[in-house]
Amino acid sequence: MIRSGIVLLDELCGGLRPRSSYLLTGGAGAGKTTCALQFVSQALDRGEVAVMLTHASRAELLAHASSLGIDLPGALRAERVVALRYRPDFVRRVAQAGTTERVLDEIRGLVTRYRPRRLVVDTFAPFLDDASPSPLAASALVELVERSQATALLTYADDLAERYDRRLEPVVQHAAGVFRLSRDADGRRQMHVVSIREALAPIATTARALAPTPNESLIDAPAPIVLVRVVDTGSDDLLAALRLQHDVVVRDVATAGALPDDAALVLETDHTALDRARALVRGNAERRRPIVVVSRFNLRSLDRARLLRDGADEVLAGDMGVPELLQRLATALRRGHLVRPPIAVHEDESLTQRTIAPAGDLLDRDRFASALQARSAHDDAVPFTVLRLTTPESSAADRRAIGSLVLGTMRVGSGDLAATADDAVVVYLHGAARRDAAPFLERVRGRRGVGAAPLRVEMASFPGDGAAVRQLFEPLEVR
Predict the structure, then answer these.
(1) Domain region containing 382
(2) In the chain, is it the N or the C terminus that has fewer CB atoms within a 10 Å radius of its CB?
(3) Number of domains the chain is built from
(4) Which pLDDT tens digit goes with each residue over 142-189?
(5) The whole model's pTM is what?
(6) Same domain, 195 and 161
(7) ω before 463 within 30° of 0 (cis)?
């Protein structure tokens, strides 16, 4: 349980269940926005991030927060609170769009970016003001709340007991609790429980109630975990570490089958089984619980990015200590699973040495230049480094020998490319920064025979050396 920050609600019900949604109703002046701001204030006290969609103007909201002693301007500047306001023509835009999908895109973007622990929609009535009899708008809002994995507070003006709008059913059915605000004859604010899924004990009004809220991770039940060993031989150390805090079921990839949706998924892999791990992540992208990948060895940065893009919520290195591993895992479990992760960079994974050249062959100059053009054609392209390798007295035999070493060292199936161009062997390292080229060169040099002519290396990296890389196309040279 966590405190809502709304005194009446906490005294009435004992607080809220994390990652659940709650509906607060009441007429004009009942105090819904006050409760919404108190809910946000509690998030600030706990060091959490909150996202808020409101009908109030900026001036009204800031003045209201100030009257409650909430430093909302400071929280907005620090991006601990992210607030959106309905446009004056919001209803018209919803009607014109014909769907709430595009209308909610901006809120989805904020949820994806900031991963808030608390979400406020004060009020969601504008979603229903298009005069449509359909509950689709409310359903889309509920879907957004579910995917956010945040504790959500939604407000609505009408009294559900007096006038129930069938379009509200998705919101009401999803809510863990529905409350009604009103004022008595003396103007004092009152709160009533309309419905609640589970009776909760009121918070004791003693000095103990003012003590700091315990760590939620110690309150929530230990998350069940399915450990899928994508590698041939799993690590007993990893299994022992997970069992310190979790109930763990072990599966190997061959017998994984249908995985339970109510358990977090931990995939144990390494660089040799990466394709199988990625396929498993993609196959479980729609699950509700988080997907965490643990690699026995440190993966290349691009491989970690691909796993996250496929739908993994965290990628952990197997060489990290147990406290860090468990803490990162706990954070991933608390954040929840993001069903549709954002795409930060553009990448065509079909463009590989294997697909555009026969096995064991180098590309020619034109195909290499065309491939680089395609790789860097987007502003959000994956970074890469291009190397030009020559010897003092280059010969066709030298180039063939260097080319063979390069093909045996680079990642042929993952995006690296190699070609002959004039008197040089040119190498494209996909997803590699300039610093990543050094280990590759060490491996190539280590495989050259004793007495072999020294390699002369020139390089450029994208996007840092963007202009120099673009000059590689015609003529194909690295400056």
Answers:
(1) 353-470
(2) C
(3) 3
(4) 888 888 889 999 998 876 666 666 778 888 888 898 999 888 777 788
(5) 0.47
(6) yes
(7) yes
